[in-house]
């Protein structure tokens, strides 16, 4: 019996039991669809996170207080107050960090806003500089659509002024022009001097939902502390980033009296470092979730093996007749193995289509719900893996039933009732 006739016979066998074939497919369909969905959504999340991090620019360097955490139990290492005004002044000196184009301290925390009876919970970001203007715009690539950022003089004088994100404008002011209006921040009066253009997420800040104030004002009146949550340094060029990182480390170690680098009470993070680390984390999570989704393929494979064993038993007389007219053990083995593989590949194709549809829907819903540009990604490797796993499952779980069918004695098979 030629291979073509084996295909034809296998297809005929599946066609005679349509309901059973469809039910057998479900395990494979669910498994492949789960893998495609997880890998697609995971890739979309990875691209979104990396895009947000890269939004700060490759020349941006973040100095973070506390030692660098080595694991989940070391998160407390971040909660230190090791970055002070002395460190900021040292980093601004050209002789210490010659390739620093801009240096900006950052403080942040949750706040409660109020305007004419309306209240709103959001995040405050204190920034700015005492010697250059518009550094917030340069660092985060965000600019006012109306009004302005606070000036150097307002930073120096700890003025109660604020620039608000677009979402805050909509939530508290509606169609009213917020410029010049008095906004209460944790019960304190602040004058609105600017409204940011819609921007969305940049790094870890959603600037549509952020209140910007001078860092001096934030420290003095809102947070009541002297240390910084970050010091952002912008290198003059991509080529000077590595040198600048080294200069920052040396300067801070001198300030803090540290001679052993392993005792650093700060750590330095470039955008390339952060992108690599988060990219690795998201890839690992995607692999783990894909492995969990793959368990359903195992269940589906066992289901196929059980159904095929039942099919072999029900078709015992058919097997006897085929052998009586000349079919060999190999012909029978090939026929039943092809039935299993055709089932799993068919389920794989349906699963891929379903998985891509679910991925597109999930990307659209997540993008709308979170207010971010969550792109839909078609992972070609997931499609290849899906088809490969489908065929593999068919071969592995179809071999035993097919072998049982091929070993049946034609005489005993013909006597089977």
What is the secondary structure topology, with strand pairs?
Layout: H1 3-15, H2 18-54, E1 60-65, H3 85-92, E2 100-115, E3 118-127, H4 135-140, E4 144-147, H5 152-156, E5 161-164, H6 166-173, E6 182-185, E7 188-196, E8 201-202, E9 205-206, E10 210-214, H7 215-223, E11 230-235, H8 241-256, E12 266-270, H9 271-314, H10 316-324, H11 329-370, H12 380-406, H13 410-415
Parallel strand pairs: 3-10, 5-7
Antiparallel strand pairs: 1-11, 1-12, 2-3, 2-6, 2-11, 4-7, 5-10, 6-7, 8-9
Helix pairs in contact: 1-11, 2-9, 2-11, 2-12, 3-8, 9-11, 9-12, 11-12
Family: Belongs to the ABC-4 integral membrane protein family.
Protein name: Multidrug ABC transporter substrate-binding protein
Keywords: Cell membrane, Membrane, Transmembrane, Transmembrane helix
Could you walk me through the main structural features you see in this protein, from its secondary elements to its overall organization?
It is a single chain. This protein has two domains: 3-53 and 276-415, no CATH class; 81-264, no CATH class. The strands form two sheets. A six-stranded mixed beta barrel has the order 2-3-10-5-7-6. Strands 8-9 form a two-stranded antiparallel ribbon. It contains 13 helices and twelve strands. A hairpin with a 2-residue loop joins strand 2 (100-115) and strand 3 (118-127). With 417 residues, it is α+β, with helices and mostly antiparallel strands. The model has no long low-confidence stretch (mean pLDDT 80). It is elongated. The chain crosses the membrane at residues 21-42, 284-312, 333-366, 378-400. It is found in: Cell membrane. One of its GO terms (molecular function) is transmembrane transporter activity. Residues 292-408 form the ABC3 transporter permease C-terminal domain.
């Amino acid at each position: 019996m030629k291979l073509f006739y084996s295909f034809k016979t296998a297809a005929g066998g599946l066609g005679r039991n349509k309901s059973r074939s469809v039910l057998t497919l479900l395990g494979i369909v669910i498994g492949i669809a789960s893998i495609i969905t997880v890998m697609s959504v995971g890739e979309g999340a990875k691209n979104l996170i990396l895009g947000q991090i890269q939004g700060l620019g490759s020349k941006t360097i973040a100095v973070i207080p506390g030692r660098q955490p080595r694991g989940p139990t070391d998160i407390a290492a971040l909660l230190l107050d090791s970055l002070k005004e002395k460190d900021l002044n040292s980093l601004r000196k050209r002789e210490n960090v010659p390739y620093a184009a801009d240096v900006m301290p950052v403080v942040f925390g949750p706040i409660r806003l109020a305007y004419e009876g309306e209240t709103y919970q959001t995040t405050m970001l204190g920034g700015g500089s005492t010697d250059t203007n518009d550094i917030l715009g340069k660092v985060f690539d965000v600019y006012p659509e109306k009004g302005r950022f606070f000036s150097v003089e307002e930073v120096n004088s700890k003025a109660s002024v604020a620039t608000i994100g677009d979402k805050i404008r909509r939530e508290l002011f509606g169609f009213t022009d917020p410029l010049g209006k008095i906004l209460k921040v944790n019960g304190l009066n602040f004058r609105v001097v600017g409204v940011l253009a819609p921007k969305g997420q940049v790094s870890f800040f959603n600037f549509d939902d952020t209140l910007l104030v001078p860092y001096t004002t934030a420290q003095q009146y809102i947070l009541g502390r002297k240390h910084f949550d970050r010091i952002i340094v912008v290198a003059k060029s991509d080529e000077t980033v590595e040198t600048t990182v080294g200069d920052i480390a040396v300067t801070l170690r001198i300030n803090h009296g540290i001679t052993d680098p392993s005792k650093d009470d700060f750590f330095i993070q470039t955008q390339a470092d952060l992108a690599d680390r988060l990219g690795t984390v998201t890839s690992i999570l995607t692999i783990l979730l894909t492995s969990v989704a793959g368990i359903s393929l195992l269940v589906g494979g066992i289901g196929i093996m059980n159904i095929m064993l039942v099919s072999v038993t029900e078709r015992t007389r058919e097997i006897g007749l085929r052998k009586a007219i000349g079919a060999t053990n190999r012909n029978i083995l090939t026929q039943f193995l092809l039935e299993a593989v055709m089932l799993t590949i068919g389920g794989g194709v349906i699963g891929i289509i379903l998985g891509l549809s679910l991925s597109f829907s999930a990307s659209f819903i997540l993008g709308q719900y979170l207010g971010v540009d969550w792109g839909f990604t078609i992972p070609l490797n997931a499609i290849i893996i899906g088809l490969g796993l489908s065929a593999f499952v068919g071969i592995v779980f179809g071999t035993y039933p097919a072998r049982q069918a091929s070993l049946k004695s034609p005489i005993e098979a013909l006597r089977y009732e």
